Amino acid sequence: MKSDRLLSILLLLQTRGRVPARELADRLEVSVRTVYRDVESLSAAGVPVYAERGRHGGIALLPGYRTDVTGLTSDEARALFVLATGSAHADLGLDGALGSALRKVMAALPAPHRPAAEATSRRILVDPVRWLSGPGGGHEGPDAGELQAAVLTDRRLRLRYRHGGQEQLRTYTVDPYGLVAKAGVWYLVADRRARPRLFRADRMAAVTVTADAVRRRAGVELADVWEVLRREVEERPADLRVTATVRRSRLDMFVRILGPFLASPPSGDDPAVVELRLPELPAARSLLSFGPDVEVLSPEEVRAELARVAAATAELYGDRAAAP
Fold first, then answer.
1. Whole-number Å distance between alpha carbons of 290 and 296
2. Which of 45, 226, 238, 242 would give a disulfide with 276, using CB separation of 3.0 to 4.6 Å?
3. Is there a contact between 275 and 264 (Cβ–Cβ < 8 Å)?
4. φ, ψ for residue 193 (rounded to 5)?
């Protein structure tokens, strides 16, 4: 639509200053001739735009001309640029529209708000989809606001960190790319020794901003590193094969919770037989939440692990029940 294209040109010029006609044409996916016609239309509408030909030429606005989005505070501007991952927009065919809309908003922001908004868009990401196998719960750590402030310093960070299932704290010096909120859990995405790593915020005992400038890999952005790390987690090999029976009355709930781990559709009548592929032995403990409605048939190591955990749980609550 021409009116949309004219607004895009106006806001791009306002943000960038002088822009070559070829670059405008490429970004708007039109010909250079169309760009010049659009410039004439803007000029006819009273916009002080002009074109300079030659090697260092381009299209520009007269100095001092701008349109503002008024009334926005700095925090409100930053809030607009906390981006979700593009999968939902791509599913709707709106990923291109999202980028175009954000460019327009960025161009129309008052100049003092732009640096913070741009930094937020590059350092904060929201991914609302749960992991196929969510990591275990952690300890309370620094809040997201404190972590955001640390990330935006563009300094290296020193973490005191507790891995899942461990009590010992470890110390890491990392180069942060930014923060990701994954289904309500905040993660720090960073390089450690030039390799991508993921750190849960609620497992951090302390975060210290060092005096050293951050050392990110050239040309690599937060979304790039997050995609690599997300795939590593979700595509982790599932080598533990488990056969179990499930009562039909609980099968729908069983499939909703453990569906990602089903190796094949349930078979049989009542109880149904299911085949699961789990990443590791502790993951099988989730089957205990179904009580006697789920029975593991094989392998024996899983049956032994569930029996051990169930016995320890029964002993714990049995001791409390016997106490006066």
1. 11
2. 242
3. yes
4. 55, 45
What's the pLDDT tens digit per position in 22-69?
A: 888 888 888 988 888 888 888 887 888 888 877 777 888 887 776 554
Give the pTM. 0.47
> Which pair of structure tokens corresponds to residue 245?
């029976």
pLDDT digits (tens, 9 = 90+) for 136-145: 444 456 766 7
**Other CB atoms within 10 Å distance of the CB of residue 181:** 17
Please report the pLDDT score of residue 38 as a whole number.
87
